[in-house]
Amino acid sequence: KSSAASDVYKRQEAVNNLEASFKEGKRRAVMVLATGSGKTFTACMMAYRMLSFTPMKHVLFLVDRNNLGTAAATELKTFKLTESGKPLSEIFWVEQLTNSPIDPRTRIVVSTIQRLYSLLTGNTDSYSEEDEDAGMGHHEGDVVELPANPTLPPDFFDLIIIDECHRSIYSDWQKVLTYFNSCLLYTSDAADDLIG
Question: pTM here?
Fold first, then answer.
């Protein structure tokens, strides 16, 4: 097989395996595809399929830095491998989280874990992308705590796609992610990142 054909096969196999895993009731899955082999494309396909063919209503696409969020939001909005051939953003509202509340029409939210924490705590301060990427004043080693009543219910997101931000989610910020206890967790990362 050619490299391109092999990548297409691997992406389809990843989607099929993830869907089978979720049908079996498993709550967590890890997809490992090499850098440049189409992890974001595969994540777009997964989001589209879950929102189209299951009762899921909201997907969170979690990234490590704003530039990755902008790239992911662009790819999600322009993804056209849909039944109608329309871009995903014409079928499901896609929003990159800011300091504003989530628009009620939104079905796919793209965010850093820092911005999501800010939303959950009700902090509407405006941060630059550099401040957000640097942790918005958070000091490494200080585990973040959520308020008694976060601004979103724990079942708001049905699926969380974690894209190459394992260092953030398994460190001081883990409570932000584990707050959403009723959702399926799907991670995508390059093998060298997982092993290293």
Answer: 0.82
